[in-house]
Amino acid sequence: MTLLSLPDALTRLDYREAVLVSVVQAEGSVPREVGAWMLVWPDAVAGSIGGGQLEFQAIAQARVRLVQSPEAGHDSVHRYPLGPSLGQCCGGVVHVRFERVGAADTASLTQRLMPARQPLALFGGGHVGCALVRVLAPLPLAITWIDSRNEIFPADCPPQVRCEHSDPVQAAVTDLAPGTRVLVMSFSHAEDLDIVVACLRRQRERGDLPFIGLIGSKTKWATFRSRLADRGYTEAELAQVTCPIGVAGIRGKEPEVIAVAVAAQLLQLP
Fold first, then answer.
1. Exposed (0-12), middle (13-18) or buried (19+): which is 2, by Cβ within 10 Å?
2. Which residues pair with 45 in a beta bridge?
3. What angle do CA 175, 240, 211 make, to 5 degrees?
4. Fewer CB within 10 Å of terminal CB in the chain, N or C?
5. How do residues 89-119 score in pLDDT, each as one tens digit?
6. How far apart are alpha carbons 109 and 11 in whole angstroms?
7. Burial, 239: exposed, middle or buried (Cβ in 10 Å; 0-12, 13-18, 19+)?
8. How many angstroms separate the CA atoms of 21 and 24, rounded?
9. How confident is the model over 220-256, as pLDDT tens digits?
């Protein structure tokens, strides 16, 4: 069975009908929340309503509906108790809607299923930056990847990631969308400091960057704190910078390990 991304699934709808399976009501302990969805074809699936027997049976039911005549009345809601009879011990109840969809529904499904994307600015195209893009690209983020070296970005960059060459690199801070979360990990400490200064300056003016994360050790941040204090930034302003970044307790320093730790930290943010 082929697992499709949402963009690929919407493209497939142009020439092959599917059944949209969506959670419309949830009671008690359940695998997924209301709004969770799957698009089901005979040979492919996009999305998930939580796995296990619930999803297995829902896929089977959707495929039965695909071979029925469209006039058979294909939109309905089924109730699935997640108990011994289903082989799942969650104990809750999930109400699932089945809807037959096709090319005429692509536009409405795009609006309905595409998640809102939180803006994220990633400064730095080095090893950790590359690892982070690979981890973050599937998440509901609108990523702007920024570096002063134009040739640094990989040719196979995910389509949802916008690459931006900025020289000087800190000039890009001015044009970030309000509400952007910022990660700073350029190839030099001097650039890192310039980017942090630009972020703090913007915070003074607009206060619209909810997270400023700087890669580095406690020693690096102590040095930066001293330099930033010399430039007139207060303790309250410096407290807006998170350094080191990443959830606590993860000791590995490999780029992929750091990327997972930072991604987890971002997902914890309100």
1. exposed
2. 3, 40
3. 50
4. C
5. 777 899 999 999 999 999 999 999 988 899 9
6. 11
7. exposed
8. 9
9. 999 999 999 999 999 999 999 999 999 999 988 999 9
Q: Which pLDDT tens digit goes with each residue over 129-160? A: 999 999 999 899 999 999 999 889 998 888 88
Residue 120: exposure state from Cβ atoms within 10 A (0-12, 13-18, ≥19): buried
Phi, psi of 20 (to 5 degrees): -85, 120
Q: Cα 105 from chain centroid?
A: 25
**Residue 125, token pair as written in the block:** 């195209």
73 vs 152, more confident: 152
Domains of the chain: 2-113 (no CATH), 118-268 (3.40.50.720)
Cα(43)–Cα(12) distance, integer angstroms = 12
**pTM reported for the whole predicted model:** 0.84
